[in-house]
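Listing S7. Sequence submitted for prediction.
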Amino acid sequence: MVTNNQLTISYELLYLMQWLLENEPERLKKLIVQALHKGLKEEMQQAIKNKALTTNEELQYSVVDFLTLLESLLQEAISEQALKNIAEKKLMPALDHIDGNICNSSMIQSSIEKASHRLESHPKENPQEVLFKELLKNWKPDKKAKSN
């Protein structure tokens, strides 16, 4: 996230921050009010009195730590939602038949997302069949690996 004193933020995190600003300003305000009641106000007043104790570098690390946590929580929520979608679309049994050595996790995740979208518009289709078709579309076999 931080290289050569430059901060890199993912598009997903930028979209999350934009979405929160546009759609949840009141909830953000409530969170800030809670923080103030739980001691933030006193900590800020103390920091102002002792200016020399907090360096710019410490403040930069705080921003980086906050953004790292936010991105981690976003990825965790995305994964949890994907698992929920898998369960809802009855794709769990199909996942047991996928060889993780042949299909990497990003290919599986992408196929699951596409299968889930397909099943939303075509709920009567066989979930396993839809997932396996998506996997085949994304599969790029390794030419070096030859079967015996």
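Caption to Listing S7: primary sequence and predicted structure tokens for the chain studied. The chain has a mean pLDDT of 81. Residues 56-88 form the longest helix (33 residues).
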